[in-house]
C-alpha cells in the first residue's frame, strides 16, 4: 500500500513537472528571443529538443531513448549525417522526420495523426516539438561529414526517384526543382538559388539544414523547406512525412555527400 | 559420390532455401513507382487539384527527366503545334494599360495551394526579369526586358512575337523555363494586353 502511494505521488509530481517544463519551454523561447544579442538562437531549440527526447511522453509515457535512428537504440551522435537510410525493421527508407514519426507512434504510442499533426510552427502558435527534436538530433552531428553510401537497393531506388522528381516539370507553370535550382548564380527576385547540380553548393546548402530562419523566428526543417518550394512551384500540397519528400531529401543528401553538416545553421 | 549428392540435396539445398527466405527483401520500396510517389505524397488544395496536376501534357512529358533532347523530331513537332495554337487578339488590339501591366508583372499571386481559387492571378514577371529600372528586386532566370520596345521597335512583327512568347514560350524555345501564360490560362487576354503595354507602349516607363 505504501509503495502504491509512493508510486502515485511520484507519478503526480512527475506529471506536474512535465507540464511545468513545457510551460517553461514556451516562455523560455520568448525570453531568449528578447535577450538575443549574438550567437545562433537555434541552440534553444537544441536544448528543448533534448528535453523532449529524454522526457517520457505519449500514451505509453516512455522516452524516445529506445528510438533507433540507424546507429542503434538511443544513439543520436552521428545519426543525422547518415540519413535518410534503409531501416530493416520497417523495410523502408526513412529520413529523420519520418523516423521520428515512426518512433513516436511505435514507441510512445501516439497515433499517426497526432504524431504528424503539428510539424511546423504557424504564426502565433507554440514552437512545434518536431522542429525542436530535429534541431537536437542534427546538432549531434555538427561538424561531421555527410555519409550517404546508398548501399542498400532500396536506398538506391529512393535516390533514383528523388532524382526523377528533381527533373519533373508539371503543374500550371511547368516548374520543376530544376527550373530554380539547376543553374549558376540564379535569383528569384533577390533570393539566391543554390544549384544542386554543383556539388559545392549542394554540400553548403544541405549542410545548413535544419536552420534557424531569422525571417520566421523559428527553426525550420528540410521537410518544411521543401513544402514551401512545392508551394512556389505551384504543385499540390506535399504531405508531411511522405515518401515523396524523403525521396527528394535522399537526392539532396546524396548530392551533398562528403560535405560537413553545420546544422542547425542560421539563415535569412 | 551418390551419397555426397544426397547429403547436398538434403542439407545444403534446404539451408540455402531458408537463407534465401530470411534475406531481407525491401520489396515495397524497390517496386515503388514514380506515380505512386506523387499519388501518395501530394494532395489537392485550393486551386491545385491532383487530377488536373497528374495529367501531363506532351510538353511537360518532353521536358521532364534527365535526358531532355530539345533537338529531337518530337520537339520540333511540339513547337510547330504550339505555334499554331497561339491565340492572337481577335480585334487586333495588342496594347493595354501599362500601369495595370506593371501591377500584374509585380504580383506573384495565384495558383499556389494556399491561394484562394477566385483571385486574379499575377504574372510574377519580376521574379525572373528586370523590367522597370526603378524596381531593383528582380530575378535573373530570364533576360532583362528593360527598354524592351525602345530596343526592338514597335512593329507588327515585334507585337506578334512578344504576344506569342507570353502566350506560349514553348513555341519558340523547347523546354523554356518561362510559364505558358496564355496556353495554360494563367493570364487572361485582357491581362496579357496590359503586360504588352508595359513592354511595348512607347509611353511606358520601360521605354523611357
Word description of this protein:
The complex is a heterodimer of chains A (268) and B (208). With 268 residues, chain A is mostly helical. Chain A has helices at 2-35, 42-54, 96-106, 112-115, 129-139, 153-166, 177-181, 199-206, 222-232, 243-255; strands spanning 85-87, 92-94, 186-188, 191-193, 211-213, 218-220, 237-238, 265-267. Chain A folds into two domains: 1-38; 42-267, Cytochrome c-like domain (Cytochrome Bc1 Complex, Chain D, domain 2, Orthogonal Bundle). By secondary structure, chain B is mostly helical. Chain B folds into two domains: 2-42, no CATH class; 73-207, Cytochrome c-like domain (Cytochrome Bc1 Complex, Chain D, domain 2, Orthogonal Bundle), CATH 1.10.760. Chain B contains ten helices and one strand, in the order αααβααααααα. In chain B, helix 7 (98-106) crosses helix 10 (189-200) and helix 9 (156-167) packs across helix 10. The N and C termini of chain B lie far apart (99 Å). Chains A and B meet through helix 6, strand 3, helix 9, strand 7 and helix 10 of A and helix 2, helix 3, strand 1 and helix 5 of B.
Low-confidence sequence ranges of chain A: 1-26
- Which CATH first-tier class of the largest domain in chain A would you pick? Mainly Alpha
Write down the overall mean pLDDT of chain A.
Answer: 88
Helix content of chain A: 40-55%
The CATH architecture term of the largest domain in chain B is: Orthogonal Bundle
CATH architecture tag of the largest domain in chain A:
Orthogonal Bundle
Q: What portion of residues of chain B is helical?
A: 40-55%
The class by helix and strand makeup of chain B works out as mainly alpha
Envelope shape of chain A: globular
| CATH superfamily grouping of the largest domain in chain B | Cytochrome c-like domain
On the 0 to 100 scale, the average pLDDT of chain B is 90
Discrete helix count of chain A: 10
User: CATH first level of the largest domain in chain B: which class?
Assistant: Mainly Alpha
How do the strands line up in the largest sheet of chain A?
A: 6-5-8
Q: Tell me the domain tally of chain A.
A: 2
Strand content of chain A: 5-15%
- State the total count of DSSP E strands of chain A: 8
Radius of gyration of chain A, in Å, reads 19 Å
By DSSP, the count of extended strands of chain B is 1
